[in-house]
């Protein structure tokens, strides 16, 4: 059975080695001895990977009127009664003129307009959507 003095000697040795390791690892006496420059990740949501992978689409690359026009016309083609659409942009406003099917009754047109507006407002919340039908 170890004596108390041996136990305290082991504890003192472990503590002194720990302090020596801490001092050598963390202490640089106020200056950078290795001349290592620390860097942080870019604040891009991808942990700085957009600098390494330039083909990753960023938010501003994907948002433009041409892409939005194509996506809007594609998204409303699935609405029953719609055969085509024309979209005009003015800042944050999107004016959509819908071409309806020939057999559509006059009382069904407002329903189609509401459905088109609902689809576009859900998919494009950054725009104020204005929908009308072509005469």
Q: Care to describe what's here?
A:
- The chain has 135 residues and is of the alpha+beta class.
- The protein has a domain at 59-133: Cation efflux protein, cytoplasmic domain (Alpha-Beta Plaits).
- The chain has 5 helices and 3 strands; from the N terminus they run ααααββαβ.
- It has a 3-stranded mixed β-sheet, with helices on one face.
- The radius of gyration is 33 Å and the shape is rod-shaped.
Key features?
5 helices, rod-shaped, three-stranded mixed beta sheet, Alpha-Beta Plaits, alpha+beta, 17% strand
Put simply, the count of helices is 5
CATH C-level category of the domain at 59-133: Alpha Beta
What level of helicity do the residues show? Answer: 40-55%
The spatial strand order of the largest sheet comes to: 1-2-3
Give the CATH superfamily of the domain at 59-133: Cation efflux protein, cytoplasmic domain
Kindly name the structural category: alpha+beta
| CATH architectural name of the domain at 59-133 | 2-Layer Sandwich
Reported by name, the CATH topology of the domain at 59-133 is: Alpha-Beta Plaits
Mean pLDDT: 80
Biggest sheet descriptor: 3 strands, mixed
Taking all Cα atoms into account, the compactness measure Rg is 33 Å
Keywords: Signal
Signal peptide: 1-23
Protein name: Sporulation protein
Topology:
Elements: H1 4-26, H2 49-52, H3 59-62, H4 65-76, E1 82-90, E2 93-100, H5 109-123, E3 128-133
Parallel strand pairs: 2-3
Antiparallel strand pairs: 1-2
């Amino acid at each position: 059975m170890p004596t108390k003095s041996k136990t305290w000697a082991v504890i003192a040795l472990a503590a002194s080695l720990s302090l020596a390791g801490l001092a050598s690892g963390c202490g640089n006496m106020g200056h950078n001895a290795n001349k290592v420059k620390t860097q942080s990740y870019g604040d891009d949501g991808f942990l700085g990977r957009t600098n390494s992978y330039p083909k990753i689409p960023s938010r501003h690359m994907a948002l433009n009127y041409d892409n939005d026009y194509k996506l809007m016309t594609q998204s409303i083609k699935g609405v029953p009664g719609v055969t085509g659409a024309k979209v005009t942009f003015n800042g944050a406003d999107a004016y959509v003129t819908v071409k309806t099917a020939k057999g559509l009754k006059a009382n069904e047109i407002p329903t189609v307009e509401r459905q088109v507006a609902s689809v576009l407002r859900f998919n494009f919340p950054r725009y104020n959507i204005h929908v009308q039908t072509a005469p």
